[in-house]
Amino acid sequence: MFEWLKALLFPVENPTVTQSIVAIMLAIGTGIFFGRLKLGKITFGVSAVMFTGLILGHFGYRIQPGILDFIRDFGLILFVYGIGLQVGPSFFSSFRNEGLKFNILAVSTVLLGGVVTIVLYKLTGLKIEDLVGIMSGSVTNTPGLGAAKNTIEEIKNSFPDRVFNDPTIGYAITYPLGVFGIIGTIIFTKFLLRINSDEEMKKFRMSKINRELPLTHKKMRVTNPEFFGKTIHQVTKELGKEIVISRLKHSGSEAVKSPTLDMELRERDVLMLVGLEKDLAEFIAKVGRPSTDQFIESDSDVRKKNIFVTKESAIHKNLAELDLFNTYDLKVTRVFRAGREILPRPSLELFYGDKLRVIGSDEAIAEVEKIIGNSEKKLLEPDFLSLFGGLLLGVILGSIPIVIPSLPVPIKLGFAAGPLIVALLISRYGGISFIHSYINNGAIYFMKDFGICLFFAAVGIHAGDGFYENFVKYNGWNWLLFGSAITFIPLIIMVIIGRFFMKINFLQLAGIMSGSYTDPAALSFSTNYLDSDIPIQSYAQVYPLVTIFRIFVASLLILIFS
Description:
Blueprint: H1 3-9, H2 17-35, H3 48-58, H4 65-93, H5 99-124, H6 128-138, H7 142-158, H8 167-192, H9 197-207, E1 215-222, H10 232-239, E2 244-249, E3 270-276, H11 277-287, E4 288-290, E5 303-308, H12 319-322, H13 324-328, E6 331-337, E7 340-342, E8 355-360, H14 362-372, H15 376-380, H16 384-399, H17 414-429, E9 431-432, E10 435-436, H18 441-464, H19 467-473, H20 476-501, H21 506-516, H22 520-529, H23 534-561
Antiparallel strand pairs: 1-3, 1-4, 2-3, 5-8, 6-7, 6-8, 9-10
Helix pairs in contact: 2-3, 2-18, 3-18, 4-17, 4-18, 4-23, 5-6, 5-20, 5-21, 5-23, 6-7, 6-8, 6-20, 6-23, 7-17, 7-23, 8-20, 8-22, 16-17, 17-23, 21-22, 21-23
């Protein structure tokens, strides 16, 4: 009676489309369940899908070859594109501060891992595709594995007689080693270096003083006769401070105005200032003194409101072009983009999804909303035209053949690097034509996690077919030993150089370690173990460039040594 259910849920050698989909759903569902279970402070999250896929593949579950390729590649594309949109803004802005130093350390670690892999290739006699799989697993780098498989397919298309081993086998054997190796290194180095998380947090905060500070607002009263009768433009130019005077109230009056640059300051005027803490303190010290006036914050004459950029008439236009103050008597005091506060300069270009904090009358705000948009509902709705347009550009970029002399076939960025680079550029410049960078956080997390689940399920089930036999056949214990060299040698050197020569805060160094090995499980562990979110920031700073280099290293090793 239930033969149909048995045929649907139990493994078969030659599955139908429906049976293939069921296998994928089983791998993802059971993987997510086990990934939520805690092993001490460790949770594997979506990484557990890889292991459940291996188990299901070992016990006979299969996926049709065509469906397998599609699920694996499409999942990888979604994952790296989501990562690019998520970390793109902080990635580019970080290079003005510590990002360059962090990325030099992280990329050097990637290259050192490639050198160790080459040395093992020369010493062990293993095929390069096996070692690239071992390398990708040892550093928990899924896009690198995807790039290696794409490169092998390209070589097979040009040379059909060539036979390659599957790098997924080495990846699957050494992946747990990579996860636990990074976590173990964080624990060991914290103990060995006698790191106190609270002390590191204090040092981190001290190092951030006067750098990357958020915008703030302060009230002041004009008392210095030197500035009486001068215009706001003259005063700000003379003092050389990047601040915005959002409100002004004359002494003895309750009327609050949004001042123009040509408005003159009078004795005992009360001003509302917006800018960096240090700049505001210096401005107040020279022009007057702090004020406790309450009327300046009154909304009787002017109101404060947040407006979202959602209309084409405002996207990719700068504030000077919109000229909101002269046209509508409305002042922009702050711009919020990708979690950052930006001081509104006339040359600032607006992106789709930007949030503007404005001050003006109800009538002025209503008029400006017609130009800016301010449709929060529109931001919640997924823009599939923009999303799939960006994915298409990523696939096209990843498919462009790059001819390098002496290599057997042209190198391609592939489905891992192509979409990632496009996503980074789109997030940096706000979009290309109708393709914009804004996707709400919930949608990005869904796309990223859904993509990696599809990839892990497909790769795991495929690798699970004959996994035990392959472990015995290829002497998996030796592969684990080779993998440990790739895991620990670059990692230990990174800690020594980062801590003792570059003087990097250990909380940040833990994030760089996790980011260099593109390991979200290690990142999750480090934030809990060190009781700090600081590792997340440095992880995001190095992840994109590290991913691109891991993709290139994996592809080049296959091309050069195969």
